[in-house]
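Protein chain data
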Amino acid sequence: MNAELKVVAREASGKREAKKTRYNGFVPGVIYGGNSAPRLVAVSAKELGIECGSSAFLGRVISAKIENETEQFLPKEVVFHPVTGNPVHVDFQRVSKDSKVKIGVVIEFANELKSPGIKRGGVINVVVHKLECLCSPMSIPASIVIDIAGKDIGDSLLLEDIELPNGVVAAHPERDSIIATIVGSRVSSADDTGAGTSEAAPG
């Protein structure tokens, strides 16, 4: 998945230059990694602000022509202003189609209404919200969807049962072996206990 951002070269670093960059409607940033030297850049503040609103932004490859040279990179870190919440600095990592990146991919769940456990008032206890994966930067999935149809209270959703996209592997399979569990809510547990008590009481 690719993102489109207006990215231009930035001539100098330092607080004064960074302030000037922000005044002109851009956010100062740096592209690093690969076999090239770090490059100072400035990114459209408006476009970056919109992209930062997406949970998938950090998994999007950006391709930009900077000073007649095409660069491809991934967002690595965005620093936000503590009061306004606006981005004030961004770091990017260079990538290529032959490189591998480690990145967290959002976990999503499907078919909740087809889960007996959810129907009985259970809830999904998420252990791994983002699965750290190794893959090509050109094939980063937007999310990993887990089907919970047929899952009941007490069932675990295991990494080994998930079919990951081609070319994508878990970076820490032992640590992330359990993705989530279906657990009973307090309300459903109380209802079950009350039902058992009623049946045991003499009529």
Q: What stands out?
A: Residues 186-200 form the longest helix (15 residues).
